[in-house]
Amino acid sequence: MKTVVLGDPPTELEQLIARRQALGLDTYDEVWEGSYHLAPAARFRHAYLDDAMAAVLRPYAQAVGLIGSGPFNLGGLGNFRVPDRGFHRQMVDAVWLDTAAMVIEILSDDDETYEKFGFYASHGVDEVLVVEPDARVVRIFLLAAGAYTESDRSELLGVEANDLTAAIAWP
User: Fold this and answer.
1) What DSSP character marks residue 45?
2) Which residue(s) pair with 153 in the sheet?
3) How far apart are CA 163 and CA 159, in angstroms?
4) Average pLDDT of each block of 10 consecutive residues along the chain (171 residues)?
5) Handedness of CA 80, 85, 89, 92 (dihedral sign)
6) CA separation (Å) from 124 to 1, 6, 147, 170?
7) Cα torsion at 75, 77, 82, 87 (round to 10°)?
């Protein structure tokens, strides 16, 4: 479900956002060109698959010198997305990251993953890996000429999408 509030946000909405921030419940909230996307933590299945993907991908990433992370802010204040996981070329101690080598998104209810592709492309993210729990498949998208095309293989990690799909103990 999407709720859009036109004009200045009412005081109650500002208080809700401030409360979420104070309680640390805003980890996955995003701002899309000034529009606040309030995103609650996903189901346990989502967290399980995130952990499974981290374990499966880590050896491939380490072999090519990439650094893994959990959720992070890609973009800047007023316009950022929060992928579930990422792989980076260098360690950056910052709140806002300009880019990533790869972002990993795990689909969940009311998910906006595919709507983020243009943003990721504009920030030079080389690959997007999407985990689709209902279909039990891992999909890989490569950046070429400013847009993503699906591929059977990660160029960064040197692994086939089918091998990643097979490595997951799907719930």
Assistant:
1) H
2) 160
3) 7
4) 70 83 80 80 90 97 97 94 97 95 93 95 98 97 97 98 97 91
5) positive
6) 30, 31, 10, 31
7) 40
